[in-house]
Write a structure and sequence with these properties.
- By secondary structure, the protein is of the alpha+beta class.
- It has two domains: 160 residues, 3-Layer(aba) Sandwich (Aminopeptidase); 35 residues.
- It has a seven-stranded mixed β-sheet with strand order 1-2-3-4-5-7-6, sandwiched between helices.
- The chain starts with a strand and ends with a helix.
- The model has no long low-confidence stretch (mean pLDDT 87).
């Protein structure tokens, strides 16, 4: 499915944008999941809001929490790369309106959100999510790794997951000096074999 994406700060959202975002969040996280919880929170004012539209209708959404406002932390910060000890951005409230599911839109939304986090907050800065565990395999397919124990949040099982940038393995190049030396040795061996062959022929002719 092809959708149009827009990312805005809270102040850039129109009253109509806010209405449709909150309506979709309420439909998915409160009504569909039968979970009475406070969806609207103070974080919305500081988040970036990624909205997917098709024919001007909201079909998907997520919000990005900047590092300075995100309270989620990696559990591996003590033993892993020092970058994990720094604050990281978070992606949350990921949803696709029910009529548009099964068309790959959730992956598009996450891909867009990850790309924006990389661009705005740094390519090497990890990204963290609080994932509902039934979506574990989906987030793993995007590169997120589960950390720590499962926990209940509003009576729904969650687990923290972190997306880190894979370290590049440096491949040692064979130096020109080594290549040159190898070529010289092979040439010398070939010369000796040719010389021995000629000497053999001369010996047989005598």
């Amino acid at each position: 499915m092809t959708a149009m994406f827009a990312i805005k700060t809270f102040d850039e959202l129109t009253s109509v944008d806010i209405y449709h975002i909150l309506k979709a969040r309420s439909q998915v996280f409160v009504v569909e999941q039968n979970c009475a919880y406070q969806d609207m929170d103070e974080l919305d004012f500081d988040c970036l809001h990624l909205v997917a539209h098709q024919n001007e209708s909201l079909v998907g959404y997520c919000r990005i929490i900047p590092p300075e406002y995100n309270t989620l932390r990696s559990n591996l910060g003590v033993t892993d790369d020092d970058q994990l000890n720094t604050a990281m951005s978070a992606i949350g409230r990921v949803l696709v309106v029910s009529a548009y599911r099964g068309q790959g839109l959730a992956r598009q939304i996450m891909t867009q959100a990850i790309a924006h986090c990389r661009k705005k907050y740094g390519k090497k800065r990890p990204i963290i999510i609080s994932a509902q565990t039934y979506l574990l395999s989906f987030y793993q397919s995007l590169g997120f790794v589960p950390e720590g124990d499962y926990y209940l949040e509003d009576s729904i099982e969650h687990v923290n997951m972190v997306l880190r940038v894979a370290k590049k393995t440096k491949i040692k190049k064979i130096s020109n000096t080594t290549t040159s030396t190898t070529s010289k040795v092979l040439s010398a061996l070939l010369f000796i074999l040719v010389a021995l062959f000629i000497l053999g022929l001369l010996y047989l002719m005598i």
